[in-house]
Design a protein that fits this description.
It contains 12 helices and 10 strands. The protein is an alpha/beta fold.
């Protein structure tokens, strides 16, 4: 089994050097989600994506949150269900917004209502030309049709290991758990990637990227699975900005995430507030010695 290992030196420094300098060329990300009492993930992914250099990130929020989040920049408020989540009334506008974006990131603070599930599935299946980043709640909302995600080209799946097990089952890939070590994780990722059309970023103690029939492993001194919003925001931006080089882009994004994670670890501040993550990522990407 061949794979590339990335530690304290980037495997693809040119991706890090050649990031877009102008917002007009740095990509447009659409981020729908949120419902009453649950909007912390969507805010975190938004802030991380901005720190990672996205040109424009638009939040598509249910109008039930207008009173709470009206001051957040880059936000649009769309029709909500009686429970306060995005509903079918928002579908037409979301499809239009997805058509005007470079990618749709789906999975932040989606409710478990049937109407939101129908909306999520419609966004994935009816935005055939759009690039889609799927994570978190998207796997719950689409639990009855995960094949629509894994068999979809131009799709990035950012997932934890338990979610990879669920996706592997949907793809018909037998899970062979041998030891639970990193080699076993790589084998599982390799088989899942070969059985589907999506690109993958596994966030665990390490980061494993699977794209274009290639695998990369990025190690860290400490666990990164609770670093998930940062992984979603960072990998999404690099993936969007380098559409012809998804493997190199995702691996470079994993390196940037690793370096930011090490910065936090060295500060002895394990309370990973979003502001601290944003600062660590910003400092990492401002380096000129990759």
């Amino acid at each position: 089994m061949d794979y590339l290992k990335q530690t304290d030196q980037p495997l693809f420094p040119k991706i890090l050097w050649n990031r877009p300098l102008r917002s007009s060329g740095a990509g447009r990300l659409l981020l729908p989600g949120g419902h009453p009492g649950h909007f912390s993930v969507i805010q975190a992914v938004y802030q991380i994506a901005k720190a990672a250099g996205i040109g424009q990130c638009t939040l598509a929020l249910p109008d039930s949150l207008r009173a709470l989040l009206a001051e957040i920049p880059d936000s649009r408020f769309l029709p909500s269900t009686p429970a306060g989540s995005l509903g079918n009334g928002a579908l037409g506008e979301l499809l239009r917004m997805a058509g005007d974006s470079d990618a749709l990131a789906l999975g932040a603070d989606l409710s478990n209502s049937s109407e939101t599930s129908i909306l999520a599935e419609a966004l994935v299946t009816r935005s055939a030309e759009a690039r889609v980043v799927a994570f978190g709640d998207a796997f719950t909302s689409m639990k009855h049709n995960l094949k629509a995600l894994i068999d979809r080209p131009n799709t990035l799946i950012v997932a934890t290991m338990p979610q990879i097990f669920v996706l592997s089952e949907a793809a018909g890939v037998p899970i062979r758990i041998k030891s639970g070590d990193v080699t076993n994780k790589i084998e599982i990722m390799q088989e899942l990637a070969q059985a589907s059309k999506a690109d993958y970023a596994l966030v665990s103690r390490e980061l494993i990227v699977a794209a274009e029939d290639k695998i990369s492993l990025t190690t860290s001194v400490s666990a990164m699975d609770f670093f998930l919003p940062a992984a979603i925001g960072l990998t999404s931006v690099f993936w969007i900005q380098n559409p012809s080089k998804p493997f190199e882009a995702l691996t470079a994004g994993a390196y940037a995430l690793r370096q930011a994670r090490e910065t936090v670890a060295q500060s002895d501040n394990e309370v990973l507030l979003v502001g601290g993550l944003v600062k660590a990522i910003d400092n990492t990407l401002r380096q000129d010695d990759f």
